[in-house]
Amino acid sequence: MNENDRSITGFTMLAHGIFHTYELSIPIFIVVWLDAFDVSAFVLGIVVSIGYGLIGIGAIPSGVLSDAYGSRRLIVASVIGMAGGFSLLALAPNVVVLAAAVIVWGTAASVYHPAGLSLISRGATQRGTVFAYHGVGGNIGTAFGPLLTALLLLVLDWRAVVALLTVPALGVVALGSLIEFDEDAAASTTDGGTAPTTLESVVSDSKLLFSTGFLLTFLTIMIYGVYYRGLLTFLPDMIGDLPQFGTYVVLGRAIEPAQYIYTGILTIGIFGQYAGGRVTDHVRTEYAFFGTLFALGILAFVFIPSSGWGLAPFLFVCVGLGFFLYATAPVYQVVIAEYAAADVHGLSYGYAYLGMFGFGAGGAALAGSLLTYASETGLLATLGALAFVGAGIVLSLLTVSSDSR
């Protein structure tokens, strides 16, 4: 990578890591909140869905603003806002204030992905490689944020843990302000279009986007978003309900293996993100997209049964789940870049994350409903079927891709 690519990589890895630190520490806290606020999984699923859903709803304005004004300022504001949401969360006396805090966090978090991904797509010359490292940065936060949360909960009250999680955001803002780069280094030599700054131009560019293979990509991302959120939101609780992973008392302290298995799944995602990004430099992205979704469908169906096959087979399935769940993200990010002009990359990623986090947030409510009124098996079977539907849509994308690009 050249110097500008390295600078963009470092800046986005930091911000991406803090986003996922917050996003995936929430499922760790859910186990605590179920008791602390005396609510059902259904109610808490709805609350979390609102916050996660705002990430998608705010993605369109964020995408438009990043096209018009650049990404750096938006990314810094996003990190500060996410820390503010968690500060309020630490003070929540009831589930209503809890919901308000998650809303603040979700609104700020909505800014990151359209701004960060459009920065990479317009500024990085080795786009696939930078997307890969960007994904690694996110998964470092994905894995070690929940791990840090679980470890701190062993010795501290959950409110103190939430408050401590605001500290890394200050470090990210400080370090990020020292990194310099050209936001349009790659786009300036190719597209050189003008960013949409009016409602009319946004509508016009949106129609152009959705008249191509981007529509099929968008539908697939919506499905993947439901799978992602539906799986991860209650995953620690589902693993904890398996008989071999109940609570153990060690040296007078309650230890829940499910939290560490969950963290291990997220840690494997580091390798998945890197592999997914790098493979797009060598393999047609539609093939990679189909492969990851098809694998996720199989893994969802065998997840619960594998727990009865022995510890090693179950952990093998967990490894596969973590790998393919996160390998999918950089793959579809490159697909989006291939189907959208550089001057509307922010808008295209805004739509993508409206699907991923907005529509996808319904996965948390879906999971809470199925866990409350059906079973873990029913939830996993539903998610597996959705992944197969997504893989089928990607096959349709292959048939039109030559005319869409």
Give me the CATH fold name of the largest domain: Growth Hormone, Chain: A
Structural class computed from helices and strand pairing = mainly alpha
- Count of helical regions: 18
Write down how many β-strands occur, each being a DSSP E stretch of 2 or more residues.
Answer: 2
Under CATH at level 1, the class of the largest domain stands as Mainly Alpha
Which geometry do the CA atoms define? globular
- The main sheet orders its strands as 1-2
Helicity, as a percent range:
over 70%
- Rounded to the nearest angstrom, the distance between the terminal CA atoms is 26 Å
Largest sheet: 2 strands, antiparallel
> Order of helices and strands, N to C?
HHHHHHHHHHHHEEHHHHHH
Low-confidence stretches: 189-196
- Kindly give the count of domains: 2
CATH structural architecture of the largest domain: Up-down Bundle
Rg over alpha carbons = 20 Å
Structure description:
The structure is a single chain. This protein is mainly α and 405 residues long. It has two domains: 1-191, MFS general substrate transporter like domains (Growth Hormone, Chain: A), CATH 1.20.1250; 198-404, Up-down Bundle (Growth Hormone, Chain: A). It has helices spanning 3-36, 41-57, 59-69, 72-89, 95-109, 112-123, 127-153, 158-164, 167-176, 199-209, 214-232, 235-241, 257-279, 285-306, 311-339, 345-358, 362-373, 376-404; strands at residues 248-250, 253-255. Helix 4 packs antiparallel against helix 9 (167-176), helix 11 packs parallel to helix 16 (345-358) and helix 11 (214-232) runs antiparallel to helix 18.
